[in-house]
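Sample log: Transposase IS200-like domain-containing protein.
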Amino acid sequence: MPRGPRLDAPGTLHHVMLRGIEKRDIVTDDKDRDDFVSRMGKLVPETGTIIYAWALLNNHAHILLRSGKAGMSTFMRRLLSGYASNYNRRHDRQGHLFQNRYKSIVCQEDRYFMRLVAYIHLNPLRAGLVASLDDLDAYPWSGHAVVVNVFSNDWQDRDFVLHHFGEKERMAINTYRNFLKEEAQKGRQPELTGGGLVRSIGGWSAVQGMRARKEKQLSDERILGDGSFVSKVLEDAEESVKSQVNVLDFNEIKDKAQADIEDLCEKKGIGLGQLLSGSRIRSVSMVRKTLVKKFVKEYGFSYAETARMLKISTSAAAQIVRNFGDV
């Protein structure tokens, strides 16, 4: 499959996600973890990249960064190629370590910065690598411990993060901790791992409101932000990038999802009634899982909205995403 162009102007805020091939581990031991983090830190001054938040887990990683003059693509290429080569030598293996190409989402800073920092730093807790927020303070493989001043490094912009939570350090750290507690109650928040229309404007309820006002808005799966932000990002983009942008009438969104249901049922040779009746036949279940993942991760539907469309429970939709969803 051809690789689409990236939105990579210097100074752009990116949420970068990478995963091991076939969801396999990208680290085996602490030497691997230290190698990954050390390479990331070394590349920060070399490429002019600024890192605000990061989390290294067993089979994937998240980084919130601002691209430097060298560009985010250069930073990521050097990080991943160098790390993968060393990993393969250490563990006497060959072949690709990472799944395809990493995923990067351009983010609207004033609207999403604090939530993205929290989302990324909560990953070890959601993955069960630590048992509590207190334990997260001592987890050395994410930027959270640096923000709360348990560990230190000279390449993570801790001050910029804390400035969003208060003027004085101690007060800012306390506010940051409380914010994480609140965000931890919200679950996985799939809207923070991708762009697109529904995610960017706050879910289907917001879509319905704008739909009633007969409004239109630019959207792009590579950009997490409202229509005006999408327009601003694309002002200086190449024509090949601009051509991929959608201008959607909100009437089209739910219709598109309904068409996806009908098209996939026809393609897989199953009846619409079978799908919507809760059938557990394997072929029907696979179609249901595919649609749930698409509606939640690509369209930004909530679990409840997805469940209503597919006639399943909200908990069933959430379980499908937890068990079968990607980063």
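Observation: The chain has two domains: 13-187, 191-324.
Observation: The beta strands are 13-19, 50-56, 60-66, 103-107, 216-219, 223-224, 246-249.
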